[in-house]
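Reopening: Acyl-CoA dehydrogenase still failing for me.
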Amino acid sequence: MLFTEEHEALRKTVRDFVEKEINPHCDDWEEAGRFPIHDLFGKLGNLGLLGVHKPEEFGGMGLDYSYNLVVAEELGTAHCGGVPLAVGVQTDMCTPALARFGSDELKREFLAPAIAGEMVGCIGVSEVGAGSDVAGMKTTARKDGDDYIINGAKMWITNSPSADFICLLANTSDDKPHKNKSLIMVPMNTPGISFSPHLNKLGMRSSETAQVFFDDVRVPQRNRIGAEGTGFMMQMVQFQEERMWGAANVIKALEHCIEVTINYCRERQTFGQPLIDNQSIHFRLAELQTEVEALRALTYQACELHVQGKDVTRLASMAKLKAGRLGREVTDSCLQYWGGMGYMWDNPLSRAFRDVRLVSIGGGADEIMLGIICKLMGILPGKRKD
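Support: Ran it again with your exact input. Result attached.
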């Protein structure tokens, strides 16, 4: 994928923003378990970074997805994963279906302020009994006149305690699991919505995450995105950009892990020589950097085909799978070379080790990615590729 001067200018804008507005505060935000999301999103909105590939008529830049990929990659230079995750929820998880399939009325009400950073969004798919198994979710939205009455609960919802709206996937009929779901835009100040205390997560500590409960929550049917019963399909489409965003966001984060480990191994003396002089260590770091470059190539290829309007389900799933597994490999290997220092909670590798573990779980677990890839290869048991 070839980047233009415009891509590189955008890359610099994001990198400068991270260095000025995010990295100086990461330690404090990690300790607090939250960051000033409305304030930070307002600044991102002022720079246009929350709507890079969203339509211009609703405040976006109207650029293709390759520009958004640049934003995701550069946000990976943040010294914590939670803040980039919160941004990714806003740009690539709770708004793609709205931008692509939503009515102009819904776009004016929710998309435009999300792009401007005036509203914070979240995505409501996962439940206690239905994480990667999206078809198994139980939350319902039953018709009552011109409204829906929503009952159920969503789990592990990033941004939810501070969110202004949720893009909610709910069962709107008793049809088959893949045909009975709809995406509905729900304002978070609607009566009947409540939250659990903040969830105490292993990583991504600076992002707010909670369980969201819906008790006879009434919203107009006009808040539905697209036709009733098409929510599962829309969410599957929405997942593709989420997975590409996640893979791109990991690239620079893993390069940073390798870079700081190289610097540490140059300074750390053992048995009369710098650690970096051990062949097993510098060969391993070279291997890891090579793997990161392979992830970059795979992610860029998926993005390029996506920009061309092609189906990237296979490549996006592969990139997401590779990002999660490589993230675990890089952070574990690099942490090892820090020895006891790497085991300390505030060590950069320790934080990255905890944060990157989510990549193999959120947005579809590794096993789901493998199932998708196998299906598209025609090698599922009892299945043929026709």
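Residues 122-228 form a domain with the Butyryl-CoA Dehydrogenase, subunit A; domain 2 fold (CATH 2.40.110.10). If you still see a failure, please send the error message rather than a screenshot.
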